């Protein structure tokens, strides 16, 4: 029998259907609440609001579970690659070999930017924030329409759009770094796989190709894979909100780059490194940093700690912590910031402030240490997050576009401003 919940208001009761997800998650369907009672719900930050149903990513924040299309993140991290995971997220199952080969070929074919992009890059100051450049350039891709065949199917068009976005976001990122460094752009190399090609475009010197070590390629592949989707977070919700107006996939993903930029979301990976540097260079002890983080009037938060959904541990942080130890060991990097990070983590995990609020290290706590070890500058960290998240944004945009029940996003509000009053002419105020 269908389950319902009863809501009583002003002596009137209504039945609200209870919706159950495939993992037993329960939700109250309030879609008729306003028409039947005149009430709306108030949920700042949407912590209790399900804005959609989705079959892409499952998270159990209490148990530290993350699965893409049902497959645990730990298995994917061990066995798969970023490109295969991108296909999995977008198409809902693991690809056959021929499908994966076709996708790889599309990524190679779509890697280069139109030459006119040079002028767009030149229009930015050399020290322009890379996330601003990325957002603008993702939108710009749509200004150079592909020459598809006349009888191109919608599926083929979508696959080419998805391939363009996943491939070009990496080229744009590398070009913005090269411009900031005053270096000539490096064209993509069709012989290189996804991550190695990115590192080639970032770091090859003129006439001297950069050959990334397998350890570095693996570490970056892992970071991208772990960031590939995270259900209805701030930037993904942005993709859905923008896409709900039937804006194109490029405009929707460009908006998501803006949402990701903030320090409470994707920008946290930069903020973690800046915090660790400040503590290290300023000779601040880990104990003093913890003390400051506990004092709300200090304005200082322990960046890389806490998560809206994970309340025991972030499974991505667990994987990256091990990966940080491994890659720094392999590369022979001794990083004092890693020692600071370890001390902060150890102290916070024992401190009742963090324990009571269930604040644990999140994915950003260790990703920055790894990116720093492999030579990626701090101001590019959030751009790397965006490269990783692109398949998730695309999968979520498509899921919504294919949903016949999807409606334009249009939340309500409880108005708290002045009630009606008269306009007063300026000389009488
Ligand atoms: N350091 C110190 N105190 C904290 C922290 C922190 N990092 N995070 C939360 N708190 C405190 C907060 O002050 C509040 O205390 P009180 O109840 O006394 O007022 C309590 O914990 C609850 O915090 P909240 O801000 O209401 O929690 P939220 O669910 O709205 O925010 C968060 C989640 C991730 C924005 C927040 O924990 C935070 O700002 N963390 C640091 C930034 C960060 O690392 N962000 C990356 C998130 S993971 C990557 C991603 O998916 O985007």
Please mark out the parts with pLDDT under 50 across 5 or more consecutive residues, or reply none. none
- CATH homologous group name of the largest domain: Citrate Synthase, domain 1
Walk across the major sheet and give the strand order.
Answer: 1-2-3
Radius of gyration: 24 Å
Overall number of strands:
6
Biggest β-sheet, characterized?
3 strands, antiparallel
> End-to-end span in angstroms?
64 Å
* Count of spatially separate domains: 3
> What class do helices, strands and sheet pairing give?
mainly alpha
Oligomer: single chain
Run of helices and strands: EEEHEEEHHHHHHHHHHHHHHHHH
Please give the count of helices.
Answer: 18
CATH topology of the largest domain: Citrate Synthase, domain 1
């Amino acid at each position: 029998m269908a389950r319902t919940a009863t809501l009583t208001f002003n002596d009137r009761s209504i039945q609200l259907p209870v919706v159950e997800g495939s993992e037993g998650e329960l939700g109250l369907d309030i879609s008729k609440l306003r028409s039947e009672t005149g009430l709306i719900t108030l949920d700042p930050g949407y912590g209790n609001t399900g804005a959609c149903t989705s079959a892409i990513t499952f998270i159990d924040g209490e148990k530290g579970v993350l699965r893409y299309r049902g497959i645990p993140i730990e298995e994917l991290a061990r066995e798969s690659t970023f490109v295969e995971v991108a296909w999995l997220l977008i198409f809902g199952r693991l690809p056959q070999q021929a499908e994966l080969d076709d996708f790889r070929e599309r990524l190679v074919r779509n890697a280069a930017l139109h030459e006119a992009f040079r002028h767009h890059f030149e229009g930015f100051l050399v020290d322009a924030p890379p996330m601003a450049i990325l957002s603008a350039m993702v939108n710009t891709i749509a200004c150079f329409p592909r020459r598809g065949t006349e009888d191109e199917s919608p599926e083929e068009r979508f696959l080419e759009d998805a391939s363009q976005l996943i491939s070009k976001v990496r080229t744009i990122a590398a070009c913005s770094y090269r411009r900031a460094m005053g270096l000539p752009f490096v064209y993509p190399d069709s012989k290189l796989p996804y991550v190695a090609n990115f590192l080639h475009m970032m770091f090859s010197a003129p006439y001297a190709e950069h050959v990334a070590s397998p350890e570095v390629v693996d570490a970056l592949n892992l970071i991208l894979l772990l960031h590939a989707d995270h259900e209805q977070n701030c930037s993904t919700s942005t993709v859905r909100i923008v896409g709900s107006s039937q804006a194109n996939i490029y405009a929707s993903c460009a908006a998501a780059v803006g949402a990701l930029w903030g320090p409470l979301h994707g920008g946290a990976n930069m903020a973690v490194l800046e915090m660790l540097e400040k503590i290290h260079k300023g000779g601040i002890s880990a104990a003093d940093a913890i003390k400051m983080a506990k004092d709300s009037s200090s304005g200082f938060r322990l960046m890389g700690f806490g998560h809206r959904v994970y309340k025991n541990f972030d499974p991505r942080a667990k994987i990256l912590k091990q990966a940080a130890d491994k890659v720094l060991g392999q590369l022979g990097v001794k990083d004092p910031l890693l020692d600071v990070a370890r001390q902060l983590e150890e102290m916070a995990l024992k401190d009742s402030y963090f324990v009571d609020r269930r604040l644990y290290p999140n994915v950003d706590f260790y990703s920055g240490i790894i990116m720093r070890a492999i030579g990626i500058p701090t101001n590019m960290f959030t751009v790397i997050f965006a490269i990783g998240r692109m398949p998730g944004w695309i999968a979520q945009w498509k899921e919504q576009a294919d949903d016949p029940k999807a409606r334009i996003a249009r939340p309500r509000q409880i108005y708290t401003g002045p009630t009606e009053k008269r306009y007063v002419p300026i000389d009488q105020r």
